[in-house]
Specification:
alpha/beta; 6-stranded mixed sheet; 5-stranded antiparallel sheet; 24 helices; globular
Length: 710
């Protein structure tokens, strides 16, 4: 028990200082207490203690004192410059002005979001500007207020837009067609990324291989195809495409290996150079919080090893969290922060106990990765359940395969990029060939495993079944940890040695009984975990609703009442659509099916027991009339649409294929949503269609959306 608490509680005095700093920061943010009385009280307590013995409690109170002073000073600084931020009142006044303003982008806070200086006459204010363009340079603009589109956001529980709080939760989007470009500011990060993309193209990577390689190298899931990204999320492997400890650990290991082969390398260079390269990588990706956490961890470990000091898990957690709170507060306690730290806490505190309880002394590469995946999943489960009301219960097994595979693919990609940059013939071709093979294999496994064993569930509200099972699992695990430590403490060394000797001298039946006892303990815990993962699989979820809607860039499936609308290409989404139909829709009475493509016909007939009418738009489907005489077949003409229960419409429109004239005629009356199916990798977006809605003559009761928003 003492050993467990020693691992959980901080050790260093500085860690207690940061603990006090973080605790007071949370208390102040929740209760909004006055910092001045707190500062005076803490000074009165701390000053007499300075002449006494320094202890951990003193360091803790010192952290609270510094936190109070820091918060008080920040409030003074922000109060002195209230006019430096463009507020809502300023925006309302700005819209009425006729003179043009100058917009100068500065720091990129999030991808595409730039903190920008706006010059309004003689006055300079800051606002958040979003640029959709991905060029290697950001424009300095001269715009009329009418060419700046206003967007208001409400913070979700994920707090992705937490950085907009100081900008009164809104941002502006310039209409580049109506603004004058004054000059261009080179973006070194995007320029470097562009060069890496060119190396990948020169290496021969295309389609899925190209997208996945970009996602892995830059830790950015936006490079992924929408359908693949959705499957990665359902499989619980989206973290592979979010820059984190895996990426920075592989990079540091790769650079360490290269430096170790150089003749001038020594103990300190082997540690400092990889750390410097990792910082450049962190800067290139613009300091995402999960990567910042991993880099701080690496720095603490490296610095401690250089001075031959030991590190403590909780100390490192507190150091890194406090530094992020001070220097990157916009990312502090966001969804990415919570997921990153909860996963690390699970690995730090649960992995070793799981190793001992489940496998004892039997340890190898497979068991080690299994307990890491299990510990991280147990750590992140409350966060995912709170934010998304969903969890991928099969992610433990999927990560067991794909995380080691990614750890092997990343250094191979780094090697291929290096060889391509140096233009070393033959070797680079071999390296790219293996990279392409493994990337395609990863794409196939991600798709296949996410489809087969992800067990992804979404819940309308918290599932008490899983919540209670999770608590019971954690209680059982802690009890087993304490029981083991108590047992070891109660048996003195001599008795333990004698017990081991006696164990060795046991007869074969007695040894079998002892082995059975040890295995039983492991089976009890493992069974509890499996029950937690799979027992509540059929808990009512978001899927148990009256109507069903699912869509991606290449298909759509809508069930409204007794009607089923199925369109697009079902070829690449066959298993997904089949699962939805069998588990969610075909149990209901479906009278009419609206079908677009022959590739979806066999799926539609999964519900053929209740189908009386089938409307089709592709001529080939008409050939099936003789096979199913009991079903009425009718050809669809005009725009494809679905009718919802409230009488509104869902229109499915492909700008590259369908007639815009037909869309305009259909939407002159009525109301509903227009789902835009843009071609793969198209730069079009619904915002542009919305801006031109009046010009097109489309009723304002219609709204343009993407398939993901359906």
């Amino acid at each position: 028990m003492r050993h467990f608490f020693r691992k959980v509680f901080p050790v260093a005095r500085l860690a207690y200082f940061f603990l006090g700093f973080l605790i007071f920061e949370r208390i102040e943010s929740v209760f909004r207490i006055n910092c001045i009385p707190v500062i005076l009280l803490l000074v009165a307590i701390t000053l007499p203690a300075l002449f006494g013995r320094f202890n951990k409690l003193l360091w803790f109170s010192g952290g609270v004192l510094i936190s109070a002073i820091y918060i008080f000073s920040q409030s003074i600084i922000s109060g002195q410059n209230p006019d430096r931020i463009l507020g809502l009142r300023d925006w309302e006044n700005l819209k009425e002005m006729s003179e043009k303003v100058k917009v100068t982008p500065q720091d990129e806070i999030r991808k595409g979001f730039h903190r920008s200086l706006i010059q309004i006459g003689d006055r300079n204010v800051f606002a958040m500007i979003r640029f959709y363009e991905t060029a290697e340079a950001i424009p300095v603009l001269e715009c009329s207020p009418g060419s700046l589109n206003f967007r208001r956001v409400e913070n979700s529980r994920g707090d992705y837009f937490k950085f907009l709080e100081k900008y009164e939760n809104f941002y502006l989007i310039p209409d580049l067609n109506r603004c004058k470009v004054v000059s261009m500011i080179p973006d070194k990060r995007k320029n470097f990324k562009k060069q890496l993309e060119e190396l990948l193209v020169r290496g021969g990577l295309t389609d899925y291989s190209h997208d996945i390689s970009l996602g892995l190298i830059f830790g950015d899931s936006s490079y992924l195809d929408r359908e693949f990204k959705k499957k990665a999320r359902e499989g619980g492997i989206l973290h592979l495409f979010a820059a984190s400890g895996l990426h920075i650990g592989v990079l540091i290991g790769f650079v360490y290996f290269l430096i170790s082969k150089l003749p001038f390398s020594n103990y300190y260079l082997l540690r400092l150079i990889p750390l410097l390269v990792a910082f450049c990588y962190l800067h290139l990706l613009n300091y995402p919080v999960s990567l910042s956490r991993a880099y701080l961890f690496s720095t603490f470990f490296v610095v401690a090893s250089m001075f031959f000091r030991k590190t403590h898990s909780t100390d490192i957690l507190l150091y890194s969290a406090a530094l992020i709170c001070i220097f990157d507060f916009d990312n502090y306690l966001t969804l990415s922060f919570n997921l990153s730290y909860s996963a690390v806490c699970g690995i730090f505190y649960l992995k070793n106990p799981l190793d001992d309880i489940l496998f004892g002394k039997f340890k190898n590469f497979l068991t080690d990765n299994l307990t890491i995946s299990l510990a991280a999943s147990l750590g992140t489960f409350p966060v995912l359940f709170w934010y998304f009301h969903s969890f991928s219960f099969g992610s433990i097994l999927i990560n067991l395969v794909l995380v080691p595979m990614t750890s092997f693919i990343l250094p191979l990609l780094y090697t291929s990029l290096t060889l391509e940059f140096l233009q070393i013939p033959f070797l680079k071709d071999i390296s790219w060939a293996y990279s392409d093979l493994l990337l395609r294999l990863q794409a196939y496994l991600s798709d296949f495993l996410s489809e087969k064993i992800s067990f992804f569930r979404e819940f309308e509200n918290f599932s008490m079944t899983h919540l209670i099972l999770y608590i019971l699992i954690m209680v059982l695990l802690i009890c087993l940890i304490f029981a083991k430590e108590w047992f070891q403490k109660r048996i003195n060394k001599d008795l333990l040695v004698e017990w081991k000797k006696r164990t060795l001298s046991l007869s074969l039946p007695e040894k079998k009984k002892l082995t059975t006892l040890n295995i039983s303990v492991s089976v009890i815990l493992l069974s509890g975990i499996l029950i937690f993962l799979f027992a509540g699989y059929n808990v009512p979820s978001k899927q148990a609703k009256t109507d069903w809607k699912s869509a991606s860039f290449d298909y759509y499936l809508v069930q409204s009442g007794s009607r089923l609308y199925l369109g697009g290409s079902c070829k690449y989404n066959f298993q997904k659509i089949k699962s939805i139909l069998q588990n969610q829709i075909c149990g209901r009475k479906i009278n009419t099916v609206n079908l677009e493509s022959e590739s979806c016909l066999s799926l539609a007939f999964l519900c053929k027991s209740s189908i009386k009418k089938l409307n089709y738009s592709e001529d080939k489907i008409g050939l099936w009339k003789e096979r199913y005489p009991e079903i009425t077949f009718e050809k669809i003409r005009g725009i494809r649409n679905a009718v919802e229960g409230d009488g509104s419409f869902i229109v499915f429109f492909r700008p590259a294929q369908d007639s815009l004239e037909s869309l305009i005629r259909f939407t002159k009356e009525g109301k509903g949503r227009i789902v835009l199916f843009f071609p793969y990798k198209s730069k079009d977006n619904p915002e542009d269609w919305t801006k031109n809605q009046k010009l097109l003559g489309i009723n304002q009761d219609w709204r343009f959306i993407t398939p993901d928003e359906l």
